[in-house]
Amino acid sequence: MFKKIVQFEAFYQLKQRAFPIFALLFLALGVFVGRQGHAPTGIHFNAPFQVYFYTSLFTLGSVFIIMFFAVSAMLRDKQHQMEPLIYSSSIKKSHYFWSRFLGTFMFSVLAFTPFLLGYCLGLHLSNLDTERIADFNWLTYIQPFLYMVIPNIFICSSIIFSVCTLTKNSTATYVSAVFVYTLYFVSSIFLNSPLLAQAVPASPESMAMAAVVDPFGIAAFFEQTQYWTPFQKNTQLLSFSGLFLLNRVVWMLVALVVLWATYQLFSFRKLTKKVKKEPSIKNEEQRPVAYKTVKTYYHFKGQSLAFLSLLKMELKHVFRSLPFIAVLIMWLCIVFSELYATVVSGGEYGVPIYPFTNQLINLIVDPLSIFSLIVIIFYSSEIVWRERSLNFNSIIDATPAKNGVFFLSKFAALLLLPIILITTGIVMCLAFQISLGYSNFEFGLYASLYYHYGLQLMVFCMIALFVNSLVTNKYLGMGIFGLMVLLSFKSNLIGLEHPLTSIGYLPRLQSNNMDGFYAVSSLFNHLAIYWFALGLLLVIISFKIWNRGVVATFSLKWKQLKQDWSKLQKLAFACFTLLFMGSGSLVFYNTNIVNDYVTQSEQLDFRENYERQYKKYDSLESLVRTAVKTEVAIYPKERRYTVKAHYMLKNKSEAPVAELFITERIPLKSIRMENANLVFHDSVYQTYLFKFNNPLQPNDSVALSYHLKHELKGYETDVSIVNNGTYINRFSNFEPVLGYTSGLEITNHIERKKRNLPEREAENNSDAHMVMEDIKFEKVTFETIISTDRDQTAISSGQLLNQWTENGRNYFHYKSKDKIMPAIGYFSANYKTKQVVHNGISIEQYYDANHDFNIKDIENSVKETLNYCQEHFGTYNFDYVRIAEVPAHWPFGGFAHPGVISMVEDMLYLKNVSHPETFNLVAKRTIHEVAHQYWGHTLTAKPVAGASLFVEGFAKYTEAVVMEKLFGKSAIYQLNENARSRYFSGRSFANTIEPPVYKVSGQGYISYGKMLTTLLALRDLIGESKLNQVIKTITDRHRNSNKLEANTIEFLNEVYNVTPQEHHVLVDDWFKRVIAYDLSLEKGAYRPLENGTYEVSVIVKAKRFQTLDTGEIKQIPINEPIKMGVFNTHQSKIKDDNALLYYQSHTINKEETEIKLIVNQVPKYISIDPFGTRSDENVVDNTFRF
Q: Is the pLDDT of residue 323 over 90?
């Protein structure tokens, strides 16, 4: 019997049109994803990691399949009123239940499986780089199918099928699907998943929690592969162990328990309808009543009453139901998780933020958009098709209510969903602010959510109802609208790049405390009108084609649309059409005519043509700037600035220079070269060629002057020039480039091959090049006059010679005393200032008046850094340190100009470090940027491979030793832990083979990660005083040089001079090879001795690994001194040396070594490399707790 029932269920599900539609859809999706070839550089398109990633990611979409088959399996009897017949048959409960579940599960798997086939076909039917497509391996596809697809679909099927079975309610079934997504979103928040990316590495505890909580196993997948190198991602299959195994086992058990509980609770004989007690009927004489025709009302009042009645019914159905309460609870869980993880628990280094309103809003808007759209997808179809699901449509459709009444009542009910989500999100934010003692609630900012995000959701509600009024099946409507939502976010993948063609697209608006909303407000407003007008047009069409009675075919709906247009409808349609076309024309005018709209393809064409036409000038000798003088006029309210610049250029080559090629960054109003004629000016590619009347001889100089006006037009954006917080820097540089700009060339070698461009020359990173290369770049004299609005202060490098007000504008005259690096910044804002003098150095702070929380910490950190650096590295080159706050839209923490430091508001000023146990991130970032006044300005490295050791490496080292001085060794532990995580996670997505430390060339994960741990390991090896002396020797050697000459070969030679000969090989290992470690402790124990001391014993396991040039990792012998520590508290909490019971180096030269130590107190922890100076993926097992 059971076999026949299963066969019938399979036959039934197979006959449904949805099955081939889903299968073809996922096949097409797989082909599309495969053909796109999206994979990090260095990783094969069909690498095991990539197949796992896409397979696990798209199993999120399997929820839609499962939902359909579950509803079809468990609600069809109810919908067709077959429950009494089925329940009274001889079919057993177990046969009925398990056959329906198997049908749901099996056909969900079968419908999703074509995705893998499509992905494989897409790769091999594309024109992708064949070198990045590995040989076909069955296991690459079978293992993700077994470990991800089947478990994920089984888990989701169990949950959704169970809810559908117990509630017999389609809405509750949809909500269960939302619940599954919610679990994933929450786990992603804790993991900082790449799918909900944040720039903060997750802690091991957060990762472990996320890896277990995520029902799809994606978090567990990321946890296991987070530190895999590109080589490992290309060759290694996932290990069915650790947290990944735990996740699969836990959720499979959860699924089985849910199914078992559902089976127990499911009553095969109990009908879903409650039996009501019939009222007693009195035997009275019944008198016939004459029939009266019911009077129908078509006037406004009658339709209004009908609307209110229907609206009340819709609201009661939606909001007075358990599914909606469940949705609301899930949403509040997501908001709470997001706010708590950042505001209370803290982001980077566990440092919380002050709960300014804009900060909280920025945290919740991403989950708000995603969650609201998911809810709209599910609820829109349910609301529209509810009456038909209940077989009540024939009655209600026969009423005299107009189509518009039906539509508007359902639209209002649907629109209230995102409005309620926004409102409850705001309430949650307010609750956090109140609980943290914050009282400046800024209700205007909260209200802006309804416009900036609610309006877009309203448009999607209109589109959803339009789609559902057009189709003949609610699941088809759900699928089409879901696909439209997906395409609206990824429209560029199908060539729809223009803002007018991406459905519902509105630019992201963010507010910061200094400047408020910025950049794209006008574009947002105009696009909001455009999409709202389109939504209104769709609303009118929906009125006309609203499903009443029997569902009409598309052809009948087309006829219906053309009939019976009232004057009001015609007028409204005409007005909305004009509004739609007018706003669209305005957007098009500002985007394509006022500005030059350029597609991605056109950008590539520009780069190709620039290279073809002007590559020949790359070999021309260029001139070197030796003096820079500017006049910068900033007009913040008008979002524009002008520059008049005068340079002195010098021929530093050994041959005469006859021509000078120049590439603009910003179009120039005029340019003049002394003793030269303009040969040509290409306004398309923004290039100039000057020919000197007489070739410029070696060491001769010439003057160059230019004038430019930078004014934002149309929707042009430039965050460097804003109302309050203008910051013109190297990231928004206006200076023309002296010479050909190789940075404009196409770098993707596949794209170059398509366009028949030659291969780019590989960078020369040889030791000889690093030492002998003559760099045509040096320090300059600098002078500027900056003018700005009367209420603002302008800042730049140099001594402030004069300050005055003229014609309602403030003027500031700065001039450098000595030559400086030409990394100049120009600032203008309404600043509050604080100035103190420390040992003859003026410490000047320029900040927003409302952001004074950390001013004292910043001042103390500057003083401590200057004290340490002057004591160990020599004189400070300036008589001032200026720190200027800039708005939060800058995507970095800070930047050091000569004598002037920019610090981003939310990365420094809004960090809450008031609690004594909180890591002082304010001090850390201030120390780092002040250190750059030495490393990058006093000592300037030659711009060749390894240069970042002198810039970021030394700055990170200074940051660490000063933090240790201020806060103890716990600061070193925190810094090294962050550096370790940054290094391993960064190399996981590296686009080139990892270079050794002394040849780093732009690899940020080494500059900000491994360099710190390597330098601290070197400090442990030779001592802090010797390492500081090495750095000071090199600094003094180049301090007064205008040329950039310091290099890592020179640094290593100085290190060898102060390092014992037996450790030279170890120094080479650290700096010249790519080395990683696997250290751990086992069998720790201690015993008291008769003299009152304690003997501590432990087994040390130690391995070293080298990454070869091929990317392969091999084990190599270990023989080096490594610190061992015994503590009475965990090393992450050590503030002073009293907690150090033992801290000495031990030579480790075997994979397993027993070590015995004597300490004077009862030990609580023993650790190898306790403060993380070795690059070890897993440091948890480095410490043993007694």
A: no
